[in-house]
Amino acid sequence: MGRLAKFLAIAIVLNELTSGYKLMHDSNMSSEYSINYVSQNVFQNTILNNASLMADGEILNFGDETSCFKPNVRSETVDSDFWELKLQEKRVLNKSSEVITKKLSGKCLIYPNGFWNYSFCYGKSVAQFTMPSDMQGLHYLLGKFDIPDHDDLRLVHDLGGYYVADTGSYGDVCVETDAMREVEIQYVCKPGVNEARILAVREVKLCRYAITVAIPELCYLDLFSTEGKNKSVHSIVCTRDVRSTDFDSVYMINYQPFFLGHGFYYLQNHSDRNDSDSDISSASMLLYTSDLVFSEENADLHKSEQLFLERAVAAFQELTSQRLLFAPDGQIFSTGDTVSWVTEVVNSGGEKLCVLRVTIDEASTANLSFDQILPGSIPIRENIVHYTRAIPQEVELFSELSTEPDLVDESPKRDRTFEVSSGIIVSERRTEHTYDKLKQESTEQENKNNLSPGFDAQEEVEEGTEVEHDEL
């Protein structure tokens, strides 16, 4: 196993222990756990030597190098009486079933998400497709549902709170697993959402999907409406023998992994970005778990490059869906913002594969390209090349929009244009507010990289809508 793969394995195991079916750092549910890394001395003195703390948790060992303390979490609910809570859950589930059926019966929800689009028809099926139904394109059945039956629904309580779950089975066979695809619909209360809509689609495991659907009326029910009032964050504390591998310890301390699916992880850098004298890069990275082979100059793209491009587009869509794209001031990317974003892509051994660039214009049209890293290239230290925020009120533009230098010998080879959506609605009347981060440093870096060219295709996506069955 690669060194970085070991680091990811620890995060994934902790994620499964604490989150079950749902992903850590879900974009619609707030996690009750945080994972922190400390030195061995701090771990020994504050954890191992604390008898009362040790009695209320457990130590998880990952080989001889890494240990983590996970606290035991007791049930946190608004009702102290266990049996009263169970009766309340049963009542809420019955009422939730009626609400969901009334809201979605005879309807389909459409979720455009870049390269892949999704349709969920209540009581029927979930499909994944690339083109409208009247055109030729890829189409996969993710799962089928029986005629709506309240007995099939489950009220689930996890780290994010309560949601109603329904599982669809007997989807198309997955080539990688030789098993049928499966999907879980998770009905949630999402404050601020005024109509039934799909909030997110995640591939939580290979060919196993989770779709989060907001039902506004659920927010009026007990348990859903009281979520978040009595919750606290529990810290998982880990330590690592830094003498084992300097490479590993840097990743363990500075990066938090997020699973994007499609063979990608987002390694979010959480080192001290305020230390201007630090030599540590504040740039986040992408990890790609499959092979990437570059074609010879002027040759057709290698099949691994074509696959990488398709997967990278889908992964970036998931990155924005999970609200992991931030402006330099810390605010989350919003519809109407213009962005020029760059990152290095590494493999599970920590080796750099390529540089990936994404630009997003004010119409939320994005262009993604990737280029080979040549020897002597300057490492990327910041992800944001420029950022222009669209805001609803008029303010004066206070700095000029910076642009990336032209790539050397650019050609339409390794790039794709597609649509992105932050899920955040801003006013029709917009003015721009520009941030420039890299300026001269990014210019010098781009001029020295001498990167090879990219490729071109077009995808069109509109906002998610609700339609009747016979419209599909």
TrEMBL record:
Q: InterPro entries per the record?
A: Man6P_isomerase_rcpt-bd_dom_sf (IPR009011), MRH_dom (IPR044865), OS-9-like (IPR045149), OS9-like_dom (IPR012913), Yos9_DD (IPR041039)
What residue spans carry the Basic and acidic residues bias annotation? 431-447
Alphabetical UniProt keywords: Disulfide bond, Endoplasmic reticulum, Lectin, Membrane, Signal
A GO BP entry: endoplasmic reticulum unfolded protein response
Quote the subcellular location field of this record.
Endoplasmic reticulum membrane
Cite the residue spans of the region called Disordered.
Answer: 431-472
For this record, an example GO cellular component is: endoplasmic reticulum membrane
GO terms assigned for molecular function = carbohydrate binding
What are the residue boundaries of the MRH domain, all occurrences included? 106-221
Stated role: Lectin involved in the quality control of the secretory pathway. As a member of the endoplasmic reticulum-associated degradation lumenal (ERAD-L) surveillance system, targets misfolded endoplasmic reticulum lumenal glycoproteins for degradation.
Regarding protein family, the annotation reads: Belongs to the OS-9 family.
Q: What is this protein called?
A: Endoplasmic reticulum lectin
Which organism does this record belong to?
Answer: Lachancea nothofagi CBS 11611
